[in-house]
Design brief:
single chain, about 450 residues, mainly beta, Jelly Rolls, 2 domains, 32 strands
Length: about 450
């Protein structure tokens, strides 16, 4: 959101013949005492500093970043090993997706301490069509992923992820893979410690209650000011005036874009005004689930966004600080929503990964929920509970930095004009409002 540069990276592809692998060697290691007493796997335990990464292979696999994925045999139950003959795109580590455990029923991972653990299932559809291979995931008895259909979500032969967090108190993280249609296939699994919370904890909750015309809570929100273009040649000046940002008295926050001549604190005169809210000085978080329920406006030149950025932006600079655009909508394409993560390379260049989702109806016609699921090694963006962007550390090139392991702050904005949104015109319905029902951040 801070900048819009549509870089393209060559997709890494691999083609392997379908072969049956020999019975894998069991990979033993020390396990936590609590896990042993609960009957968990005898494989390596997840600790607060060391994740466990496993792959459906008989020997160790290494991803593009030299991270080791040990054989999954001590952790997995059911299924057989195979290597898919289809190509896999969208990742720098296709071997984690072409090596598959077909028909897997469950996984059990010992954990060294009670807390919340982040789980990432690496999946790619080798050959099925939408609806032919569908499954559900349960963690510690609770449903965490419903009707997983990789062919529908990502298409055939593209890297995808099922990400979630689960509290564990008994020393063993138990996952169940429940088939609905066809036979489940999983390539690799990464489990990492996320926090000491052993139950969901609400870290931030704004329901935007208050009298009509009043500002949002200053204990939760601050503002950006001015009309310097914001790195994207935007045409508005951001203010904190009631005409641009206020509660509506009915449990909503309205960010309003106006057509008016206005000179901001920075001396830039603009023909439009709007608002950008930020929690930079009031709230930051590292990992968890952040959700906004909102309705975006339609119209040429309007850009609505719910996003987050690394708090160290002033010292690290952009894009090295990291940015995740959980939701963006260009008003000229009201039926399409977009999600992007931005970061930098070791050489100081920018890289990004982005996705869009086309709706049956315009997303601007009603309220929708947009969610960030964020863990130590992965990021997922959902709309109405349906994932449309999933990226893991293992997917990016060795030269790319992964800055998503530090505190981030949240932003809400309604921009006018810019390189990506295009310019408003005589058909743009101004004033226009981005209406937010709530923002919630949970620990898992």
């Amino acid at each position: 959101m801070r900048r819009r540069g549509w870089l393209r990276r060559a997709e890494v592809r691999v083609a392997l013949a379908v072969v049956a692998l020999a019975t894998p060697v069991v990979y033993h290691g020390p396990a936590a005492a609590a896990a042993a007493s609960s009957g968990c796997s005898t494989g390596y335990a997840v600790t607060t500093s060391q994740p466990v990464r496993v792959a459906a292979a008989a020997s160790v696999l290494t991803d593009a970043r030299d991270q080791r994925f040990v054989p999954d045999a001590p952790y997995a139950a059911g299924g057989s090993l195979m290597v898919a003959g289809s190509e896999v795109s969208g990742t720098s580590s296709p071997q984690l997706y072409t090596h598959l455990r077909s028909g897997v029923r469950s996984y059990a991972f010992p954990v060294a301490t009670a807390g919340t653990y982040f789980v990432d299932l690496f999946v790619a559809e080798p050959n099925a069509s939408p609806g032919q291979r569908v499954w559900t995931v349960r963690a510690e008895g609770a449903r965490v992923a419903d009707t997983v259909d990789v062919a529908r979500a990502a298409g055939t032969g593209r890297a995808w992820h099922v990400m979630f967090a689960a509290p564990v108190t008994d020393g063993c993280l138990n996952l169940q893979i429940v088939p609905i249609a066809g036979v489940p296939v999983v390539g690799a699994v990464s489990v990492s410690y996320e926090s000491a919370a052993s139950a969901k904890t609400m870290m931030f909750d704004d329901e935007f209650t208050g009298a009509a015309g009043s500002p949002p809570s200053t204990a939760r929100w601050g503002y950006a000011y001015g009309g310097n273009g914001w790195g994207n040649n935007e045409q508005q000046s951001y203010t904190d005036r009631p005409g641009n940002v206020a509660l509506d008295g009915a449990g909503h926050l309205d960010i309003t874009a106006q057509r008016e001549t206005y000179t901001g604190y920075d001396g830039h005169q603009r023909q439009y005004t709007s608002a950008r809210l930020t929690t930079r000085n009031t709230f930051t978080f590292q990992y968890g689930t952040a959700t906004a329920r909102l309705q975006a406006p339609s119209g040429n030149g309007l850009l609505s966004a719910f996003w987050a950025m690394g708090k160290d932006v002033d010292t690290a600079g952009w894009p090295a600080c990291g940015e995740t655009d959980i939701f963006e909508n260009r008003g000229r394409t009201p039926s399409t929503v977009n999600a992007t993560i931005h970061a930098g390379t070791h050489a100081g260049q920018a890289w990004l990964s982005s996705a869009s989702k086309q709706g049956t109806n315009a997303y601007t016609q009603g309220f929708h929920t947009y969610t960030l699921i964020w863990g130590p090694d992965g990021i997922e963006s959902d709309v109405d509970g349906n994932p449309y962007l999933s990226v893991a550390r293992s997917d990016i090139a060795a030269n790319d930095n992964w800055p998503f392991n530090r505190p981030f702050f949240m932003l809400l904005s309604l921009a006018v004009g810019g390189d990506w949104a295009g310019s408003p015109d005589s058909t743009t319905p101004l004033p226009a409002q981005l209406v937010i029902n709530y923002i919630r951040v949970e620990s898992s």
